What we know:
Two copies of one chain form a homodimer.
Chain A: E1 5-12, E2 15-24, E3 29-37, E4 45-51, H1 60-64, H2 68-73, E5 76-81, H3 121-136, E6 141-151, H4 153-165, E7 172-175, H5 185-195, H6 200-204, H7 208-213, E8 220-227, H8 233-236, H9 238-246, E9 251-258, H10 265-283
Parallel strand pairs in A: 4-5, 4-6, 6-7, 7-8, 8-9
Antiparallel strand pairs in A: 1-2, 2-3, 3-5
Amino acid sequence: MTNISLLSKSKSFNGEVRRYSHKSTSLSCDMKFHVYVPSKSSTPSSVLWFLSGLTCTDENFIQKSGAIQYASQNNIFLVCPDTSPRGITIENAEDKWQGPGFGAGYYLNSTTDKYKAHFQMFTYITKELFELINKEFTDTININKHSIFGHSMGGLGAISLFIKTNGQYKSVSAFSPISNPVNCDWSLHSFKEYLGTENKEAWLQYDPCHLLKNYDGKPFDLLVDQGSADEFFNDLKFDNLELACKENSKINLIARLQDGYNHGYFYISTFIKDHIEYHSKHLNK
Amino acid sequence: MTNISLLSKSKSFNGEVRRYSHKSTSLSCDMKFHVYVPSKSSTPSSVLWFLSGLTCTDENFIQKSGAIQYASQNNIFLVCPDTSPRGITIENAEDKWQGPGFGAGYYLNSTTDKYKAHFQMFTYITKELFELINKEFTDTININKHSIFGHSMGGLGAISLFIKTNGQYKSVSAFSPISNPVNCDWSLHSFKEYLGTENKEAWLQYDPCHLLKNYDGKPFDLLVDQGSADEFFNDLKFDNLELACKENSKINLIARLQDGYNHGYFYISTFIKDHIEYHSKHLNK
């Protein structure tokens, strides 16, 4: 039985970029994802997951970040999932960055009648796609070495998934994460639609600041870059992230305010080397 | 008088990616282009032009090639023009890669009644935009140090413009150029529309193989990469390019057949470092 269909492949930096589609049971729709498979090495590859931001698909990061050369150098297998369920119809579900809707899955499991049949991105990434990658690429990767990072909404996702899965990922980092969605109007608007208007406790369960402040597991490092010229600076709440981590001695935040950089991929590409080498170091500890 | 309007800017690798629009007199329409301005240095930057392929705009290369980091390291100012006139109406002009039409300007000057009012890409790149860059960025760049490279249709353009302008560009290279368009059905279809169905001599004036074979100026190097798994391999005529250069002792062809690579940006990004360092070496001779 084939679980995934190969849509395209391209050699790059001696490895291969591949795009696949598969039927997702957790999202009840067909999904696409990209991987980068580094060239064969005597050591199985570590796996690094990148969660993309609002409006993105599985394509943006692999095409624009410049990550492949560093994944190749560090024998890292990249996984780039999509950001929401696709190809379904939900009345008035909007396809724009303010969400909720397509391209705006927020890496959470919806509980509302309107969204819960499809918007189960937490389960999709941490269970379904995680197991599928481990199964399909078991000859290539070390299934015990996964790490995770992301950008903007995907930075929120990386921090949230890292904490909530308790050791599934070895390390975590983020570019300009949505750090405190319950204090950001457009994020909270989506949270209310996905999790109900009254359920404030459910919102907090996907809020990085809340999760970081209350984390009580094994100490960990958290690398976060944030551009000072980010057009969403006021909404992302970088300061609140720093405060939350300061209140919790279990978290060693490496916060880097990058002078003059904005929110886009020209900024991400400048610092992607640092993030991939950071994860490589943690994965090979 | 402002000749260009800044549409966006993003800091990247300590320099700045900027997108501009301007009214083009040679094309009789509004055009956009991207530049990368490296961070201030005591030495004026060299200028490197990248001509994109069919269906591309001014965006593809700057977003996907990974060129910026190497431009930054080598103090190179990148210029990324669009591939055709835009925002005009021409009856039945097609917007697809087989052309003729938008995204398929072929870097030539049209002579047919249907296209000549707008499709003057040779003049646009070599004269109008060249002079505009030299004027607008005169404090940043060394106006005597320009080089040129390109991909596919833009590889054709780079070779053609390098030869036909006789010393305006210091060096030239190409990724997977359309090397012999008069022997490629879809290219010749566009050539006929732009230059007339009968005028074979005019077609040859934009055919890299013909230009290289008959070149009689100062000897020069030509770096060309070609993927062996290129989906357009049979149409690009890499072999004819090698033959044409072999017949002319003035040309030192550095032809690299890259095993297993296809036609896309995942391939270009693998070898972009080599090309930028090649131009940097020639520009600093």
